[in-house]
Amino acid sequence: MISKLITAPKKYYITTPIYYVSGKMHLGHSYTTIAADIFARYYRMQGSDVFYLTGTDEHGLKIQQAAESKGLTPKQFVDDLANQAKDVWKLLDISYDGFIRTTDPHHEKFVQEIVKKMFDKGDIYLGEYEGWYCKGCESYFTEKEIQNGKCPMGHEVFKEKEKAYFFKLSKYQEWLLKYIEEHPEFIQPQSRKNEMLSFIKQGLDDLCVSRQSVSWGIKLPMDDKSTVYVWLDALFNYYSGLQGKEQYWPPDLQLMGKEIFRFHTIYWPIFLKSMDMELPITEFAHGWWVVEGQKMSKSFGNMIYPDEFIKKYDLDTYRYYLFREVSFGDDGSFSNKTLIERINNELVATLGNLFSRVLTLASKREKTFVYHKDDLAEKVDQKIIEIHKAYQEINLTKVVGEIFEICYLANKYVQENQLWVTVKENPELFDKQIYVLLETLRIIAVELSPIMTKKYKVMFEQLGLDINNKEHYLLEFSKTMEGKIVKKGEYLFVKKE
Ligand code: MSP
To answer: Which atom of ligand 1 is nearest to the CA of 296?
Structure first.
């Protein structure tokens, strides 16, 4: 059943970056992947036809070298790591529909076709390249960008010279500026849009899109001694990953970290324009996580790995904390202190306590309840609309915040109406008010279902709802809770020291 309060898009195609298979997936990778998962689950629940694509970026010098250092062929090396990535996503309950690997034969073939078309069209031409190359970033940098022999990310760079093919970025500069101006939804958030615009306005140099020095890559169709520049290869995963499901094109939302925004807001739209392909609706960059105020790095020994976190706490706490703690789009710091505070004050004292209180009260009557609507119900409907808007604004922190606002409203309602008194003194009134509360709890559980993919099932069970019944997910204050047999069960969350 579809809510009358909100309208969801008919189809919804969402992507994450495809991650390098250079090591274990950490907090940063899981952040984007969970974010996309929340959107995918939310829109699916609203009846949208969703396609969620993620995957792995498996070509390039870094991978070639990492495989060599382990005595493996690149293919053996990437197979193993791609499987590891899938295992982590399974653990995190990621509901992706497609998983693309850039070593998939159909992807390699597709990229070759693209490059050939760009060449035939004259957008790719032969020239010579000399510049500063960074292995870490798989990217050349200009003289301006190098500081003390290091790239902007702080890696060492090397001078390299080679016969090379170039893509005519400059040809599309004016077109891109105009496109961005006419499509305000294309680059979000606004703060990062300005950075991208000023980069384009400085002037776009043509981009070197072939590599002689890298053998682990897709062969250039016009010169099989060179391979395709990894970013030209990688970006087209978003199309090749659809594999027979091209009806989902273009992406509605592409999520990523801020450090790769430039590739997605400048190169990517230009490549697509060159191919006469439709552009994605929105490119959104979120910020970067640090840990206790410090850059996350293996050498500092402060890496956060989701599998380890989950062993210590639980999956839902992880998925919740990431979007509650840091405003989506901004940089943020992971801290044990705020984590414990969020668990104890919000998950235990607000959400868990609300469920336990209301269900205990309801059980006292040993009966089921009939529909009733009042002020709280009106407010809940309003919140459903707010939450939907927050999704449309790509503001997951607001989504989580608004859900918690519903919990606060409900707790206040119990308090103000003194339900523990009316249950004895005015049972008729109590039955009406408890219906409003139970229906509110149902809506909280439904709104939490894209985020807390495990705990919401416990909430459903306690409320006598069926996770397989689509009607029970209706986002609207309704009669759904009529006649449901609720039961007070285990505490949803436990206090942590
Ligand atoms: N392979 C490229 C992307 C190609 S997309 C066509 C790549 N891979 S990556 O493995 O380095 O992943 C980068 C992504 O991981 C970031 O864009 C971001 O989504 C996520 N993060 C990695 N570290 C992060 C943080 N510390 N904080 C938040 N997210 C970060 O770049």
So the answer is: 26
